[in-house]
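Board notes (copied after class):
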Amino acid sequence: MSYVKEMGIILSPSENKFFRGLATPQKIQNYLDTLPINFERRGETYMSPRRVIRAKTAHCFEGALLAAAALAFHGHKPILMDFQTVPEDEDHVVTLFKQAGRWGAISKTNHAILRYRDPVYGSPRELALSYFHEYLEWNGKKSLRNYSAPYDLSKFAPKKWVTEEEDLVWLVDALDDSRHFPIAPKKNLRLLRKAARVELRAMKTVEWSRDGKRHR
């Protein structure tokens, strides 16, 4: 049985209708932008796409999974990329896609940075590098250190990650333990210049406030 058929079987009629409407990476990103950020007020969560649809909120990992599920529903590979930072900063996860021979990325974030990437990149590494100068700590230090090889979720049955009701801690761990590559040699990382103050001010711009209000 094909992955697309498996998806159709395990999803409810309303979920099938929902995913039919997310037919392109651009439409998927447009939908993710309408979801308030999951601030995890009741504790850490790693919700499956089914739970995200129900909760109508998501953080980066949860948004990436929903995007991957939508791509898989339409016959594309559900591929994630994980970004690892210095210990003081937070990792990020995006969903990769390919259109007209070029790579792009779908991203759920609350900031003006680390967002969607149009399909203009020649390779996953080229795309990963595009996030480097946006990955900043509040002291101005650039913090991105590693990026993962494209992580194909189709190695797992859809019921393990698309409709699971339990938090997907196992998948977070598997992605974190997967093969990663350094963003740059250590000697180059020692030469990094701190971000300018104007760049740090841009980091303060958020799309969603904690009261659920969207700032356009």
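Comment from the instructor: The first strand starts at residue 79 and ends at 85. The beta strands are 79-85, 92-99, 102-106, 117-121, 144-148, 151-152, 180-182.
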